[in-house]
Design a protein that fits this description.
This protein has 1 helix and 8 strands; from the N terminus they run E-E-E-E-E-E-E-E-H. The protein has a single domain, classed as ATP Synthase, domain 1 (Sandwich). The chain has 146 residues and is α+β, with helices and mostly antiparallel strands. The longest helix has 45 residues. Strands 1, 2, 3, 4, 5, 6, 7 and 8 form an 8-stranded mixed sheet that branches. It is elongated and about 75 Å long.
């Protein structure tokens, strides 16, 4: 099997001969062996591990992304960010922690942007309400009826 892990800026891993691959999606950890059925999944922030022909174990931390298996011979991973390393403990402790912080910060930023959008819409409705809405009408968003 061939394994390719790529980011928008580079190919982090191009391993032409891989015996097995281990990855993780929302449902949990899973393994891929040669001949695997075609497959597509969204990865979590996790470590992908694979064995080369000499059965040596390799690792890459990925910041989410997608994994596809094609023809049972090609495993492709597309991810925003990947860090290849030999020390699984360090990848899990340092890199995955950083990736998880980034995901949480992005989630908080999206929530704040949503709150700001809702506040802007409410402000616009309040400003336009005298011209557009009569109190007690179906479009009165305040619920008042006077």
């Amino acid at each position: 099997m061939r394994l390719s892990i790529s980011t928008p800026l580079a190919v982090a891993v191009d391993a032409p001969e891989v015996r097995s691959v281990r990855a993780e999606d929302e449902s949990g950890s899973f393994g891929i062996l040669p001949g695997h059925a075609d497959f597509l999944t969204a990865l979590t922030v996790s470590v992908i591990s694979w064995r080369d022909p000499r059965m040596k174990l390799h690792h890459a931390a990925v910041n989410g992304g997608s994994l596809s298996v094609t023809g049972g011979t090609m495993v492709r991973v597309a991810t925003p960010e990947a860090v290849v390393g030999t020390d699984l403990g360090q990848l899990e402790a340092d890199v995955l922690a950083r990736f998880r912080r980034q995901v949480e910060q992005e989630r908080e930023s999206r929530a704040e942007a949503h709150r700001m959008s809702v506040a802007a819409i409410r402000a616009i409705v309040r400003l336009l309400r005298p011209q557009l809405l009569r109190p007690g009408s179906q479009l009165d968003m305040t619920g008042s009826s006077a």
